[in-house]
Amino acid sequence: MYITLLNKTIKEFTVSDFAREHRLENYEELSDFDLTTRAGGGDENAFAEIVRRYSPRVFRFVGRFFRRQSLVEEAAQEVFLKIFTQLKSYEGRGSFEGWLTRIAVNTSINLLRNSKRETEMTVSALSDDETDWLEQKMSDAAGVRCRAEENKTVAADLVNRVLNQMSPEDRLVLTLIDGEGHSIKELAEMTGWSESKVKVQSFRARRRMREAVEKLLKKSSLEKIVTK
Questions:
Q1: Would you give the distance in Å from CA 65 to the centre of its chain?
Q2: What architecture is the 4-115 domain classified under in CATH?
Q3: Where exactly are the structural domains of the chain?
Q4: Can you give the pLDDT at residue 142?
Q5: How confident is the model at residue 1 (pLDDT cuts 50, 70, 90)?
Q6: Among the residues of 87-147, which ranges form H helices?
């Protein structure tokens, strides 16, 4: 992957190397708006400071949606490439961090959508512990307590499996709102969506996840009956 600055192509773009090699101490004192103005005009050192300043946030964000480190790095590089190509569109009306986050959101969604392969979750993928946890949570009479740590591990693994089958948009709202506790307003700012759209998306995502879990539990129960 290459990035062109000042009409010349520099070596393969890696976030850490680029920021380190072009770092100048006085650039740390510049505001985000000054950095974007300079970077938009072709200043490599200004863009390197943007990368240094915001790469932790970008990596943390894309890391929520990609498990393999190689995919996280690829997504982060794609985010910064898009930031660079769109710098001139940033007018300083809102926070640069919010503007950058929206690019990270849209890039992650597009990468997930493009790489997503429709796969049906098979019942054989469920362990006995996962099936038991599902039955406990879906039952109105659930009262049996599992050991806390085991319960957390099984639940987290199962939630991730279900999330991986869902659309990027559904994964986004479920991860950030239900998983990390962000508000409707915060997610609207991150994505650029209206608050009403976020509310509708989260409502539908929760419904689809519940349906996916119920379907999975039903299939698992049928398999148990057949194999007895």
A1: 4
A2: Orthogonal Bundle (1.10)
A3: 4-115, 123-227
A4: 44
A5: very low
A6: 96-115, 128-138
7 burial (CB, 10 Å; 0-12 / 13-18 / 19+) is exposed
Q: Which residues contact 197 (CB under 8 A, 6 or more apart)?
A: 188
Alpha helix stretches (DSSP H) within 116-194: 128-138, 148-164, 168-173, 184-191
Q: What are the tokens at 14?
A: 């890696």
How is domain 123-227 classified at the CATH fold level? Answer: Arc Repressor Mutant, subunit A (1.10.10)
| CA separation for the pair 178, 69 (Å, rounded) | 24
Contact status, residue 165 vs residue 122, Cβ threshold 8 Å: no
At 20, list the tokens. Answer: 């380190």
Tokens of 27: 């650039």
**pLDDT digit string, tens, across residues 89-114:** 888 888 899 999 999 999 999 888 88
